[in-house]
Design a protein that fits this description.
The structure holds two protein chains of two kinds.
Chain A: H1 3-19, H2 42-48, H3 52-57, E1 71-72, H4 82-97, E2 102-108, H5 115-135, E3 143-149, H6 160-166, E4 168-175
Parallel strand pairs in A: 2-3
Antiparallel strand pairs in A: 1-4, 2-4
Chain B: H1 4-15, E1 36-40, E2 44-47, H2 53-69, E3 72-74, H3 95-101, E4 105-114, E5 117-126, E6 131-143, H4 147-163, E7 172-177, E8 185-190, E9 197-198, E10 206-211, E11 217-225, E12 227-234, E13 239-242, E14 249-255, E15 261-268, E16 271-278, E17 283-286, E18 294-299, E19 305-310, E20 317-322, E21 329-330, E22 338-343, E23 349-356, E24 359-366, E25 373-374, E26 381-386, E27 392-397, E28 404-409, E29 415-417, E30 425-430
Parallel strand pairs in B: 1-3, 1-4, 2-4
Antiparallel strand pairs in B: 4-5, 5-6, 7-8, 7-30, 8-9, 10-11, 11-12, 12-13, 14-15, 15-16, 16-17, 18-19, 19-20, 20-21, 22-23, 23-24, 24-25, 26-27, 27-28, 28-29
Helix pairs in contact in B: 2-4
Classes of the chains: A alpha+beta, B mainly beta.
Chain lengths: 176, 435
């Protein structure tokens, strides 16, 4: 597992390479990276991400969307609905265009329910998204999953708007 | 038997409420009744306790425990008719005066401090009976640092004499907290502390602390190596070690009552199942094998069964299963969301978290799930853990703003706040008795 740290340290460099023109072959061009609604500032989107836990350790809140869009769920559910399928289609598209990119899928839940159950639920959500991506031809080896349950929420309000934002699988690009 | 003289008199007095004076309420004697007026006088300085500080601290800790129990109404020290310097034997005590003040019972005693050693002698007095109660009187000697435990043991002995069940306060509570601007760590709270004390230095996410049965180590899941794994911190050394080796993700763990094995929740292929593992973390048996979520194993005190949470029926519910494996029996029968089961150390009851009217509440039921009763109402309440006496549960609650720990008796009549402040305190685990 020590490799994760290596990945993380290497992340900034790897993601900067294509921007700096250092990656000649399959590096993504800016135009290909709009899937997550990132628009301009591609480099910042990609590098500013990082896992929700690493961000929390640096005192930062979790990232919402990113180059790859967040996939959302209903309460106590890990079912992929229509809206989720659309996001996944775009994410799969980006992964096909960036075949060397590896991602980690973070399963998150809203604040309701107990800690340990939500950890199990987050794992189910991340796996459901992984299965969809694999079903769309993305190699399983490129995708790792982790659950943070309700431990690292985007927002803290106790209302449906915030709960819905927190019920998500967030994709973190680990390297290319 | 011998204890029953005063204890029965207490009960009789309270039962005969109509003829009693104003101090005796019509409520029954039990946790939450706060019906038994007691005065706790700071211990008299019998030598070396400059300024009476040690004697006052002892009385403060003892009073706090008695208040938390919910049985007592602590009389205001400002109204006391005898102070810290007054006599501590029956012939010297103004029982008539204490009676007029409304006291049914009185705690007095003395303290001797010699360098780093301390000796306390505490006596419980039956005010109407005008005599001391030797069964609930104690003498302790030890290092000065043990003073809080001497006070907790005294509270536990007084509760044992008056209620027939030893009190639970010579113990501590493990929890996860976000104190001091850190992410999350395991903390420990004793009943003489205002704030929990940090025991891990994970600088990461930490969840689901559980005590080893000897109360000398706390299991927890940490994300320190990126993925969630099961660790254990030894006390008081605070040495941390992996419990289940290998890359497999572990969400929670629980020691068997005899400390020989553990139940752990492992995630494989995104699905959580419960495994029996040995002390070295090697898998002995996979106990659940279901596509739905299985999580939160809780050993029965007999060591033969465990409760857990499963979503196999479409929503999370509480189930029971033999540690030998086999079929799972559902024990939660009402509600669409029941999680985090906890076995009473007495083996007769379960507590769990239920979703009710939008929030979450604590339920206490018989061990087979029958007679479920919701014991909380205010705020959202989660993750119950039983006191070693099987009489109280500790849980987290949002009723006071942030997430803090609260204690309730198993009927929900007494509700006491244990932690305060600007941090979130979650996942309490009440330790076994310290000895």
């Amino acid at each position: 597992m020590k490799a994760w740290w290596t990945w993380r340290l290497a992340l900034a460099v790897l993601l900067l390479l294509p921007l700096a023109g250092g990656c000649k072959k399959k590096g993504p061009r800016p135009g290909e990276l709009g899937a997550g609604g990132a628009g301009a500032g591609l480099g910042e989107e990609a590098i500013g991400g990082g896992s929700s836990l690493e961000r929390a350790k640096r005192g930062l809140g979790p990232e919402e969307d990113g180059v790859l869009g967040d996939v959302h769920f209903g309460f106590d559910s890990y079912e992929i609905d229509g809206a989720a399928r659309d996001v996944l289609a775009r994410n799969a598209d980006w992964l096909r265009k960036n075949p060397r990119a590896k991602i980690e899928l973070e399963g998150h839940t809203d604040s309701r329910g107990t800690i340990e159950y939500n950890l199990a639920l987050g794992a189910k959500r991340a796996k459901a998204v992984k299965d969809q991506l694999v079903g769309q031809g993305i190699a399983a080896e490129r995708i790792s999953t982790i659950s943070y349950g309700k431990e690292l929420p985007l927002c803290h309000e106790e209302d449906e708007t915030c709960w819905a934002r927190n019920r998500r699988v967030h994709s973190v690009i680990l390297g290319q | 038997m011998r204890r029953s003289c005063f204890a029965l008199a207490v009960l009789a007095t309270l039962a005969a409420a109509p003829r009693a004076r104003a101090v005796v309420t019509a409520q029954i004697f039990g946790p939450g009744s706060e019906s038994f007026p007691i005065a706790v006088v700071p211990l008299k300085n019998l030598g070396g306790d400059a300024g009476g500080v040690t004697g006052a601290r002892f009385a403060q800790i003892l009073s706090h425990d008695l208040d938390l129990s919910g049985y007592f109404r602590l009389l205001d020290p400002k109204t006391f008719i005898e102070d810290q310097s007054s006599g501590i034997t029956a012939p010297e005590i103004d029982f008539v005066g204490w009676g007029a003040l409304g006291a049914q019972a009185l705690v007095k005693g003395g303290v001797t401090v010699t360098g780093e050693a301390v000796t306390v002698e505490v006596r419980l007095f039956d005010v109407p009976g005008r005599q001391d109660v030797p069964q609930a009187s104690r003498r302790y000697s030890g290092p000065r640092d043990d003073l809080p435990r001497m006070a907790h043991k005294t509270a536990d002995a007084i509760l044992e004499f008056l209620t027939g069940e030893r009190g639970p306060f010579d113990s501590s509570i493990a929890l996860v907290s976000t104190r001091a601007g850190r992410l999350k760590d395991v903390y420990r709270l004793t009943f003489d502390q205002d704030d929990p004390v940090r025991v891990t230095d994970e600088r990461s996410l930490v969840v689901n602390p559980r005590w080893r049965p000897d109360a000398r180590a706390i299991l927890f899941t940490s994300y320190r190596e990126h993925f969630p794994h099961l660790f254990q911190v030894e006390l008081p050394a605070r040495r941390v070690a992996r419990v289940v080796p290998g890359p497999g993700e572990v969400l929670d763990g629980a020691w068997s009552p005899d400390g020989s094995r553990l139940l752990v929740t492992r995630v494989q292929g995104g699905n959580s199942d419960i495994f029996l593992v040995d002390r070295a973390g090697q898998v002995l048996k996979q106990l659940t094998d279901h596509w739905a979520i299985d999580v939160a194993p809780a050993w029965a005190p007999d060591g033969r069964r465990f409760a857990f949470c499963s979503a196999r029926a479409g929503s999370p519910q509480i189930y029971m299963m033999s540690v030998e494996g086999g079929s799972a029996t559902r024990v939660s029968t009402s509600g669409s969301y029941n999680t985090s089961p906890a076995w009473s150390p007495k083996g007769d009851r379960l507590a769990w978290t239920t979703r009710a009217s939008g929030g979450f509440q604590i339920v206490v039921a018989a061990a087979d799930g029958s007679g479920p009763r919701t014991i909380t109402a205010a705020g959202s309440n989660e993750n119950p853990s039983w006191a070693p006496d099987g009489r109280y549960v500790v849980f987290s609650s949002t009723r006071a703003g942030r997430v803090h720990l609260f204690l309730a008796d198993r009927d929900g009549r007494t509700q006491k706040q244990l932690t305060r402040g600007a941090a979130d305190d979650t996942s309490p685990a009440w330790s076994p008795r310290l000895d």
